[in-house]
Amino acid sequence: MTFDELKTLLVSLGLDPADITPDSTREEAGLDSLLLTELALVLRKERGVPVPEEELYAATTVAAIEGLVSRYAGVA
């Protein structure tokens, strides 16, 4: 998944596109624990990408989340 694809997905979950950059922390982007859980569900059910929630919580930046998603997308 590219950064732009992830950004589009995050915006569809209600985040402000201006806050989402690769270097944004989860907090700067607006990704609280509820949105991370929702992101994990959307990735799993709609995209077939089984990213564990624990690993999403451990990712500190949007770029790190992108890397996780990309890594698990190859496994799905």
Automatic annotation (TrEMBL):
<feature type="domain" description="Carrier">
    <location>
        <begin position="1"/>
        <end position="73"/>
    </location>
</feature>
<dbReference type="Pfam" id="PF00550">
    <property type="entry name" value="PP-binding"/>
</dbReference>
<dbReference type="InterPro" id="IPR009081">
    <property type="entry name" value="PP-bd_ACP"/>
</dbReference>
<dbReference type="InterPro" id="IPR036736">
    <property type="entry name" value="ACP-like_sf"/>
</dbReference>
<protein>
    <submittedName>
        <fullName>Acyl carrier protein</fullName>
    </submittedName>
</protein>
